[in-house]
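Researcher: Here's my situation. A collaborator sent me these components and asked whether they could plausibly form a single complex. I don't have experimental data yet, so a predicted model of the whole assembly would be a useful starting point for our discussion.
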Amino acid sequence: MNKVVKDAREAIKGITDGMTLMVGGFGLSGLPENTIAALASSGVKGLTCISNNAGVDEFGLGFLLKNRQIKKMISSYVGENAEFERQLLNGELEVELIPQGTLAERCRAGGAGIPAFFVPAGYGTEVADGKEVRVFNGKPHLLEHALNADFAIVKAWKGDTHGNLIYRHTANNFNQAMAMAGRITIAEVEELVQAGELDPNQIHTPGIFVQRIFQGKNYEKRIERLTER
Amino acid sequence: MRKGSSDLRKGRISDCGFPPPVPRPSSLKSNSKSIQHHNTSIMALSKEQIAQRIAQELKDGYYVNLGIGIPTLVANYVPEGIEVVLQSENGMLGMGPFPEKGQADADMINAGKQTVTVLPGGSFFDSSTSFAMIRGGHVDLTVLGAFEVTDKGDIASWKIPGKMVKGMGGAMDLVASAKNIVVAMQHCSKDGESKLLKECTLPLTGVACVKKIVSDLAVLEVTEGGFLLLERAPGVSVDDIRKATAGRLIVDGEIPEMRF
């Protein structure tokens, strides 16, 4: 078993033009900063990125947007990024908006081998366009399909050499579901330890879902809206 | 009431440090206490007073999801002796107030991406578990803002054609599954157009889901026959509310004023 890679550059080997990536994080919290930076300098393009948000102009997926490396975003909320808006209005970027809970469940289902499922979110709205509707317990539901990705890129607080991951606070967010849904899942962690050093009772993502892991460096952990008492 | 009952106009929103409103729906921008309608000026509730009235809907032991804007302020007015647990859909139960100066943690944010704290008894979890709580009907009360609502309980809150679309976030999941949804909103637009309608003019967030509305003018329940008027804002007449409501309005007997 050798899942440990040296750094982000080694971790992204095999990510090529036109691939679909899942990128964990909510806003700027729990972002795989090192891997995003490596993708930005790799020049890979035509990417479809499944991520709850699209970063801000100067952080997160904003780096890839600025370089025009993203062809399509699949997200629930994208409103914090001027470059994103510009590309969208110019028709340079495709966007598919999905209700947040449906997005999370589509990722989880992709990893769990559930090809599709019914949810009530979006019934009667434009999200329902073209989707099968079925009534359960008197309530209409939409058929939603699982999402998978060529690579899922996630960030955890601690990880071990077997790929077991522990997230911290609300930085878990989409990382846990996305980690399950990548054909190859790359995990970057703030602290990488030997297998056996993490308490097996505390693992959020069991190592079976993770193919490559490395300890990231220089985490900026930027705060989008600093609010204090 | 823990806060603000003695001097409503002050709207002491910062007392326990809960997040102040982030202006998201443009309709919620105005903090004015009077609106122009049919050439008369009506004394309407401030945003803080709307939040304070909604807080009266809370019951001990409730798990509550508060949306961005006025709903966030509800946390400042939790009645004495009642314990509620706030859910933040990015993955936290037991959301507390803003951190003390210098204590902000990038790994601890709310759904509005503001830095927050966690209270004793709180927990963290991933997004799919978070929406399992919401979709599974485990959240007792959802409070959110709206651009428009209808007398059938439809809600439009996420998209204005011609303006940049930011996305629905978790709003569609919340409205489709919450057991009890209270909408906090202004009764009319700045131009005096009613936002309580027969049909929404804006793209829908959900259909037949809103149970109750607390506006700056009134408390209304969505019933089969339309908006049932429950309470008036202090100094606002039934006639004022009738003029400001484009959807079907049911006025049954004497309508009491809201009490704070």
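Model: Some features of this prediction you could bring to your collaborator: Chain B has five helices and 15 strands. The longest strand of chain B covers residues 117-124.
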